[in-house]
Amino acid sequence: MNVLMEEWKGQTIVVLGLARSGVAVARLLFHLGAKVTVNDRKPRAESPEAEELENLGIPVICGEHPENLIHEGVDLLVKNPGIPYSASPVQQALVYGIPVVTEVEIAYRVASSPIIGITGSNGKTTTTTLVGRMLKKGKVPSVVAGNIGRALAEVAPELKANEWLVAELSSFQLKGVQTFRPRIGALLNIVPAHMDYHGDLNDYTASKEKLFSNQQPSDIAVLNWDSPECRSVAKKIKAQILWFSRHEPVDQGIYFAEGRVMVKMANDAEAWELMPVSDIHMPGVHQENGLAAAAIALAAGCPKEAIRQELATFTGVEHRLEFVGVKRGARWYNDSKATNAKATIAAIESFHEPVVLIAGGLDRGVDFRECIPAFRKLKGIVAYGEAADVLLARAKDAGIPEQEQYHARRVEEAVFAAANLVQSGDVALLSPACASWDQHTSFEERGSIFKQAVHIL
């Protein structure tokens, strides 16, 4: 454990929000000697996690945000990443000058191990999972935690000094860090997302940039050369930069060239070949995630052969261009994690075969005009949910014949409609371009329903 753990003893700390990370950070801070109070607006009956904390002697207040929750005697507010900064306890804390952080900051201060932080609008989970697999294959001590696996605050105290903590980090989590400094930080891409939370693209980008704000020249930043937004962020970074690119050589990093995966690290006099591009098992845009993971793993000391083996065998993670099966002669893919237009465009462009797209979900006021060029490549489209009308309007703009369009109510109906549009050799792709919350609790639930419907075709 980090010597900084002594800083929590006797402090008065409010943890806002239960869920997995809230429970973990409350329990950790309590064991470190802090006076912890947990608050969640959900009713007590909907907060089964509260009992575990109460059994430890931690007060848990459910059902409301009491007016006296935040006061001058509070030393720190640790909030669930998804709770907006407009929430009354957060606003009160800011008025009092009380620091507001997320679990990531606490885990960093407690952990004695080096951290790999991975963020981006799209591809975080795929890249994080692949890094973990590469390090495990290469026998590099490491733990994958956070949004994947156990909570960061649960894992941090257990880590050894030579053990990498590999963490997928969202903009919500990074917005609430102060001293957090990963030894290796990776930014995969930036596209407009979560504007309802951040308010504008500037705040969203600034939150992502916090991954690098405390890095020093001895640290490493891994960035996407093919992303203009990443190139812009790079101008502010003090750390050594490793680039990854599918489209052109880079001075330092990993890239595709003439059908080969080439690498040039800081100590390399010349670039060297890692493997043929054709040996990478992942399709399309996920090859970009593979390059990012390889750069991160190399920086963490992973043997080349372990990286080669994982790139050649890894097929992706659930709900990210996940192959579901062959039905009606077509290959069906579940890309339910594609919750914005850029992710759906990338998914469409991953295939050379005719694609029937299933898209739709929560209407956030997006016009999807940027999808028109990609939609021109589609054989057909089935749109459902709140955003169906605007997606079908863009399909019309793209010239998709009316008989190749269908307006469905739900995902299950969309699957059966798509089955009537596909032919042998086609691809049927669920890549919604929208959040799932108009009809589902999560993109995972949406993807599971899609797969069940495909399997009974």
UniProtKB/TrEMBL annotation:
Record-listed ATP binding positions: 120-126
Pathway linked to the protein: Cell wall biogenesis; peptidoglycan biosynthesis
Role: Cell wall formation. Catalyzes the addition of glutamate to the nucleotide precursor UDP-N-acetylmuramoyl-L-alanine (UMA).
Limits of the Mur ligase central domain: 118-296
Class of the enzyme per the UniProt entry, highest EC level: ligase
Domain Mur ligase C-terminal: 319-434
Gene Ontology CC annotations of this record: cytoplasm
InterPro entries for this protein: Mur-like_cat_sf, Mur_ligase_C, Mur_ligase_C_dom_sf, Mur_ligase_cen, MurD
Any one Gene Ontology BP term: regulation of cell shape
Catalytic reactions of this protein: UDP-N-acetyl-alpha-D-muramoyl-L-alanine + D-glutamate + ATP = UDP-N-acetyl-alpha-D-muramoyl-L-alanyl-D-glutamate + ADP + phosphate + H(+)
Protein name, UniProt field: UDP-N-acetylmuramoylalanine--D-glutamate ligase
Keywords, alphabetical: ATP-binding, Cell cycle, Cell division, Cell shape, Cell wall biogenesis/degradation, Cytoplasm, Ligase, Nucleotide-binding, Peptidoglycan synthesis
Family, as annotated: Belongs to the MurCDEF family.
Enzyme Commission number(s) from the entry: 6.3.2.9
Species the sequence originates in: Marininema halotolerans
Subcellular locations according to the entry: Cytoplasm
A family per Pfam: Mur_ligase_M
GO molecular function ontology, one term from the record: UDP-N-acetylmuramoylalanine-D-glutamate ligase activity
